[in-house]
Amino acid sequence: MAFGLFKDGEELFNAALEEINRKEYDKAAKTLEKAIDKKTKNVNIAKVYIAFINVGKDLDNPACYDALNASLKDLGQDNFKFGLTTFATDALMKECDAMSKCIRARNMGDGDKVSKANMMIDGAKGLMVAVGDQNLRINEYYSGHALSGMRMANAIMAEANELLALDAYWTDPQKAAEYQQQAYNYRRQNGESGEENLKKMQQYSKACTCWICGRQVVGEGMHFFQMSAEPSPQQIAGDKNELQRSLSDSHDIYVCRACYTSISRRADAISNEYYQRGIAELRATEAALRGQIIALEARVSRLQSDIMMLRH
Ligand SMILES: [Zn+2]
User: 174 in a domain, yes or no?
Assistant: First the structure.
């Protein structure tokens, strides 16, 4: 029974529907909670609405998609209306499941790149099957932007392949270039230029002969580096025949990682030695100056008391 201000479960549920129509989602969620407390008959759909409101507030939170998915399982209806939009229950459940997996994979740390990339690929494949060329319904409802499941999946596949490339580059530049090629294909499918992937592929497959040790190396920026140097014209002429591609256009030399790191570590050690020596000398000078200041202060105060004695 309802008296005045005290609404029953059904009245509260109907009030929440109006609040949803007015897009007053926070208010609607509170009213729905109250309707559930007051034992509304619409408890299942009320729970779906609350979960649907929560996912809208935090579209990047996988737990919100899981909660919505769980509430949809108990709904017992093929479709439902939220505001003016009708959603197919089964399709939305699949979307929630795929979105939750994709977001979880994307949010993983980069510590284990291969595991993260594989999780992302799994999630993206799920999205291709579950949503495909249809638009992501939840994203579309709240953001107003049409984004197909395929487009989102392509973007995730590109990111995953870039991660795999990054991981493989350390041991296998050739394999890394293949991953970049895959990433490039996915980006092209989404209408992007894929310029960064092309640049990386060139970088990964670039080869040189180390100017210092003469080893053949593949993979710029990881396995060999440019170093500033001053090769003489005679060396440059000699380089053309024997040590192909060991010079850059600017006459910097190309040096393999082992040579590069051994030189830079030795240089670091030497400069650190100079630094420590410099600091020690500075400290000694400082101590000497401090001693002189103390001596001078003592002389000044002696002179001051001499003057005082002369005045009296
Ligand atoms: Zn070398």
Answer: yes
